[in-house]
Amino acid sequence: MKARTDMGHITLARRAAAALLAVALISCWTLASAGKSRDAGATPQSDGGFQLTEKVRIPADVRADYDNATRLLEAQQYEQGITLLLKVTQKAPTAAAAYVDLGIAYSKSGDLDKAVASLKRAVELEPRQLVAYNELGIVLRRKGDFAAARDSYQHALAVFPGFHYARLNLAILCDLYLGDLSCARDNYLAYQQVVPDDKQVAKWIADVNSRAKP
User: Does pTM top 0.85 for this prediction?
Assistant: First the structure.
């Protein structure tokens, strides 16, 4: 049976309009389906995904650093990307998107404490930041703080119940780390309603049902 792994952020894209920058985080995800993350107020994309757009006033030179940083992250050059993102957060301290990317970069480089700090800063700045909550849940799970990871996924789902990446991560957490089969089954089923063609999750549901029998 295929290993159950977290659905997390891989790549980013940005777009801007004059002095008002709209930072669009376009996130590709692992496992059965791909999609775009968004906040609860955005419009679903035609491919069934989501888009998260954050608007902040930011100087043009900072945007250049941000673009360069995300290209470095996509090339897995995390140390250089982190250096540039730190410059971005210094010049644009209210740009939650930069803290999300910084948290992801720290996570990828293995510095989980700094990843947590950056992602928590992102949700302080933008409490409806779905990507940040999902990534924070992944990092907290890796740190062994399962209760806090569960809380982070649930925060994302409270903002938007149809955010199926957090839904599946919560199901996996409950299944493999918390031993809460009821939570696992409920969230696998909720995920399946959004992604009905995921045959692997159908097997995981059957597995949970077999273990839940008296």
Answer: no
Distance CA 44, CA 52 (A): 10
**Domains defined for the chain, CATH in brackets:** 15-212 (1.25.40.10)
Task: Give 212's pLDDT tier (boundaries 50, 70, 90).
Answer: confident
User: Do residues 24 and 55 lie in contact, with contact meaning Cβ atoms separated by under 8 Å?
Assistant: no
Q: What are phi and psi of 140, to 5 degrees?
A: -65, -35
Residue pair 180/174 in contact (Cβ under 8 Å)? The answer is yes
Task: Give the count of beta carbons closer than 10 Å to the beta carbon of residue 142.
Answer: 15
> For residues 78 and 70, what is the distance between their CA atoms, to the nearest angstrom?
9
Q: What is the pLDDT of residues 144-158, one digit of tens each?
A: 999 999 999 999 999
Local structure of 116: helix, strand or coil? helix
* pLDDT for 123 beyond 90: yes
- Main-chain phi, psi angles of 39, to 5 degrees: -95, 170
* Sheet strand arrangement including 15-17: 15-17, 20-25, 52-57
Q: End-to-end distance of the chain based on CA atoms, in angstroms?
A: 23
